[in-house]
From TrEMBL:
SUPFAM superfamilies: Thioesterase/thiol ester dehydrase-isomerase. The keyword rRNA-binding does not apply. The keyword Lipoprotein does not apply. Belongs to the thioesterase PaaI family. InterPro entries: ACOT13 (IPR039298), HotDog_dom_sf (IPR029069), PAAI_dom (IPR003736), Thioestr_dom (IPR006683). Residues 83-152 form the Thioesterase domain. It holds the Pfam family 4HBT. This is Uncharacterized domain 1-containing protein. It comes from Pedobacter soli.
Length: 170
């Protein structure tokens, strides 16, 4: 049925004019947000809307559409009684950075965490520099699935890998 919408053919898929303008608008918002974030590359983040991120005090290393890389220094208050990075702090890093990654996508809607699934592989100690990197796994209309890997570069170890489903709440 023809509704009078023009379409654009991109080989594998076709897009109506409304979807095209939505994606153009989204890309523009994504670029605006990325340009804002890129001003902080190499700096400690202390003015995030996330108070938890401010407490974590990450250094932004890279900001791309759907990708963030941050470096964290493990502080005493981030450790458990064994003086290693607390699993809850690792989970918090993963959850918080995945949330910030959604911001880079330029979406107008708000998203909230539905679940986190985290595998822990190695430890980090007070004073260690760890790096977390996010990526989009799958983008749906209602649910986004993202991943975050946390590394200990000095020992070439993967500390943890987590996945999160983010729900579009409007």
């Amino acid at each position: 049925m023809d509704y009078g919408l023009w379409t654009m053919d991109y080989g594998l898929w076709t897009m109506d004019c409304f979807s095209y303008f939505y994606i153009i608008m989204e890309e523009s918002l994504s670029e605006q947000r990325l340009n804002f974030l890129r001003q902080s590359i190499g700096k400690v983040i202390t003015t995030s809307p996330s108070n938890f991120m401010n407490w974590l005090a990450p250094v932004l290393i890279k900001a791309e559409h759907g990708i963030l890389v941050c470096q964290y220094t493990v502080r005493k208050e981030m450790t458990n009684p064994y003086q290693i990075l607390h699993g809850g702090v690792t989970a918090g890093i993963i959850d918080d950075l995945i949330g910030a990654t959604v911001f880079t996508m330029g979406l107008n809607d708000r998203f909230t965490t539905v679940n986190n699934y985290i595998d822990y592989f190695a430890t980090a100690s007070e004073g260690d520099e760890i790096v977390a990197e996010t990526a989009i796994v799958k983008r749906g209309r209602t649910i986004l699935n993202l991943q975050c890997e946390v590394f200990l570069p000095s020992k070439k170890r993967l500390i943890a890998k987590g996945y999160s489903n983010m729900l579009n709440i409007g």
